Amino acid sequence: MSEPEDISTFSKSPIIEHLIELKKRLTVCVISIIVATGVSYFFADHIYNFLVHPLAQSFSDPSQRRLIYTSLTEAFVTYLKLSLFAGFFLSFPIIASQIYIFLAPGLYKNEKQVLLPYLVISPLLFLTGAALAYYFVFPVAWQFFIGFETPAVDGGLSIQLEAKVSDYLSLVMQLLIAFGLAFQLPVILTLLTRAGMVQSATLAKGRKYAVVILLVIAAILTPPDVISQIGLFIPLYLLYECSIFLCARIERRKEAPTNELTPSA
């Protein structure tokens, strides 16, 4: 009668161990985000000045301009969101390392070698996308929107921008995240190719469909203005073309003779 109990214990033990390990990794991730968010809050003014700089540079006289808030808690809540946003950026290397530590025991040696570069490339691509938005898209887009200001004519009222601080920073964070996530396209396509779910020939033949899909993605991820949508679509399409080349290289390597998969020690 003891044999069923032993089998039950044997089958449940690995699951419990995995859940304990998952809880440990999630705890480290959550603590790292909380600590990084707390540190970021003390530098919230500097982060705010950095994010508002493209808008300030779009005005001819920034000293005469301002951002407003219309409720007592708006600025405080906005700074908390900003700190959480920065905290996630700062803690991402820790989060990525915890994901790798959790997955590593179940991976073959060559699978580990494949996964490690992605843990480096993925955040670099995210930062590249966010930098593109900050340094190239923001100045052009903000200048375009400010162009709708008009002076008072014939006793009328002028139209002048007085943006809410929460609206501005929410828009900035939305665009930074959108560009950063969109730049993960090569990572996604190359991983799908390694898994045998996508082929480079299929991607090459589907360019016209890809253009439509990428335009839809750009329209969803960005505000309803042509500048930011085109600013996201163009690099997305270039990344798509790069992905076709990378996927073709991966397929050629997979076709070459390789050693058998052996679990790592």
Protein architecture, described:
Helix 3 (74-103) runs parallel beside helix 5 (165-182) and helix 4 packs antiparallel against helix 9 (226-255). It is built from nine helices and no strands. The protein is flat, with a radius of gyration of 24 Å. It is mainly α and 265 residues long. Helices cover 77% and strands 0% of the residues. It has two domains: 2-161, no CATH class; 184-256, no CATH class.
Write a compact overview of the structure shown.
With 265 residues, the chain is mainly α.
C-alpha termini separation? 36 Å
Low-confidence stretches are 1-11, 259-265
Report the helical percentage: over 70%
Radius of gyration: 24 Å
H/E topology pattern: HHHHHHHHH
> Would you report the number of β strands?
0
Number of domains: 2
Structural class: mainly alpha
* Average pLDDT metric: 84
Shape: flat
Largest sheet: none
Beta-strand content estimate = under 5%
Number of helices: 9
